[in-house]
Design goal:
Length: 586
């Protein structure tokens, strides 16, 4: 994809702005999330402390301890419940009334037998917590179906010595917890509204969120004194703390989505602003690159293209003093120099054309002289030699007959040399009549002619014509190329029992490479560059006849078509001649 600077520069600026925006958003998101996590880690321990303080049980413990030391309670329990009932009830009603529905206050002997009760709440006839001797003791949270309740107990009497003989009992208060959505909402509101508060036993179930009974948090939360992350339906961050004087613990937990909400809000709020900055920056970059950079460069480019096309008067307007202004001035200076050089070159071309026309005229005169002046005496020598051989054969001794035969043979060879030299010289002046040429049909036609005219062969000649693509060129000249190469292959395979010649082609970029391959005498590859020179031969005329001009003609024709020619070979292993021709009309 070939994009112009007008597109590349805004795209680069846009990518840079996007990268900066993403980096800033990522850094900002991370910082906000880190600050939010740090704030949550401060809120959670504070919330657990507040809740633990809220559930401090000092007053409840004092009331039960004081009740256990009341003389009426002590007397009633030491009598085994047989005396002092009314006085004991009066003392108990000061703590828990008979109509209280959420609590029950009991007096039991050490065997657990119920002696007296006030309040309406009762779960089962049992002692739920081991009583404290010096002060009341809270037991763990307990669950009965969907009811969550707690118990506190204190011992009366039962000491050592005389106290042990006097007997005693247990003061126990049992109360259930009011679990409701309202309670949960109220406590959550005290912690900030989004912190979830839990209460339960340090050793395990049951646990509650003050609206319902819930599973206990994992031990990693309960054993850690710093906020930790865990899963409860969703990712949570939680902190735990013990409730002093009880076997209970409180936990404050916060959903991770709440912790990361400020970071998401930052991203949601800043992303559109970053997008707007990117769009505005891209538009400014596009406008600036078009007005300040690509438009002046475009003017220089169009002027250079016009100059290349031949408009030597093309110039660029200079309106700036920066680098682009200096570029425009430099271009105008270059255009002036090109214009002057062009006019000077045209004058030189006209002068040399005139000189070349004179040289061509002299060459035409030379060709005429060669054609007429040299041929006349050559024909005379050849003719008189033939007369002596034919009319005076009987008067001539064998040596004279041999010498006259040598004269006859060399005059014919001289005539062929003159014809080939004239043909070679005319190639440079002949106009190319370009057209579509069927190279396969042309090769088959020339191959048939070579087979008919081939003589003096020891064995068979097989010429294989592969499929050949057509080309644009002069049919007559290309026929000369194919004829010279096939005649050359036929000549140098004359001594082979099974002579093989192949004509084929192969693609080479935008050109087609044609080749003529034979299994003949071949040549020494060190002298391959001499093959296409005029009168250059690598074999003697006694071995193979010829004038040494045929391959030079091939080279001249191929070069005039814009191609090139070369050869590869090895002595006694054949030779391959290659030539290239354009497949499209120039």
């Amino acid at each position: 994809m070939n994009w112009s600077i007008e597109r590349k520069l805004p795209l680069f600026v846009t990518i840079l702005l996007v990268a900066v925006a993403i980096t800033q958003l990522t850094i900002g998101y991370g910082e906000v999330r880190q600050a939010s996590s740090a704030l949550a880690d401060k809120r959670l321990p504070l919330a657990t402390k507040v809740l633990a303080d809220l559930f401090q049980t000092g007053q409840g413990r004092v009331r039960i301890t004081t009740l256990a030391k009341d003389p009426a309670i002590a007397a009633f329990l030491r009598s085994g419940g047989r005396s002092g009932r009314e006085a004991a009830l009066a003392a108990m009603r000061r703590v828990t009334t008979d109509t209280a529905s959420n609590a029950g206050l009991e007096l039991r002997d050490f065997s657990g037998r119920l002696l007296l009760r006030t309040g309406r709440f009762s779960v089962a006839d049992s002692v739920y917590v081991s009583p404290g001797k010096d002060s009341a003791r809270y037991g763990p949270l307990m669950r009965r179906d969907t009811t969550l309740f707690i118990a506190i107990a204190a011992a009366v009497g039962g000491g050592e010595g005389n106290d042990a003989e006097r007997g005693g009992g247990i003061v126990q208060q049992v109360a259930h917890m009011n679990l409701s959505e309202r309670t949960r909402t109220t406590l959550t509101g005290l912690a900030g509204g989004d912190v979830r508060l839990l209460l339960g036993n340090a050793t395990g179930d049951p646990w509650t969120d003050f609206a319902r009974i819930v599973p206990a948090p994992p031990a990693t939360v309960l054993n850690s004194r710093t906020p930790v992350r865990y899963e409860r339906g969703e990712a949570m961050r939680a902190s735990a703390a013990p409730v002093s004087g009880t076997p209970w613990m409180v936990v404050a937990e916060l959903p991770s989505r709440v912790v990361s909400a400020p970071a998401r809000a930052y991203l949601t709020g800043m992303a559109p602003l970053a997008l707007l900055i990117v769009i505005v920056g891209a538009l400014i970059a596009w406008w600036g690159s078009r007005r300040l950079l690509t438009r002046p460069l475009g003017e220089v480019t169009h002027a250079a293209e016009a100059l290349t096309a031949g408009d030597l008067d093309q110039r660029v307007s200079v309106r700036r003093d920066d680098e682009l202004g200096r570029l425009a001035r430099s271009f105008n200076t270059m255009a002036e120099q090109v214009s002057r050089s062009h006019h000077h070159l045209e004058a030189q071309v006209a002068q040399r054309t005139k000189a070349l026309e004179g040289t061509n005229a002299e060459l035409e005169a030379f060709s005429y002289s060669v054609s007429h002046d040299l041929r006349a005496p050559l024909r005379a020598v050849h003719g008189f030699a033939r007369i002596l051989l034919e009319d005076h054969h009987a008067q001539l001794d064998p040596e004279a007959q041999r010498l006259l035969g040598v004269i006859d043979q060399n005059t014919r060879r001289m005539g062929q040399l003159i014809d080939d030299l004239l043909a070679f010289s005319r190639l440079g002046r002949k106009e190319i009549a370009a057209g579509l040429v069927d190279m396969e049909e042309l090769a088959r036609t020339v191959a048939d002619e070579v087979r008919r005219t081939d003589a003096g062969r020891k064995g068979a000649l097989a010429i294989q014509i592969d499929p050949l693509p057509p080309v644009h060129g002069d049919r007559a000249l290309l026929r000369q190329v194919m004829s010279n190469l096939l005649q050359n292959a036929a000549k140098f395979t004359r001594d082979r029992a099974e002579a093989r010649v192949e004509v084929g082609s192969q693609r080479d970029g935008e050109q087609t490479v044609y080749f003529v391959k034979d299994n003949g005498a071949g040549f020494d590859a060190r002298y391959a560059d001499k093959l296409f020179g005029v009168f250059q031969r690598l074999h003697s005329t006694e071995q193979f006849d010829g004038t040494g001009v045929g391959l030079a003609i091939v080279k001249r024709i191929v070069q005039r078509h814009g191609g090139r020619v070369w050869a590869e070979g090895k002595v006694n292993h054949g030779a391959t001649f290659f030539f290239t021709l354009p497949t499209e009309e120039p």
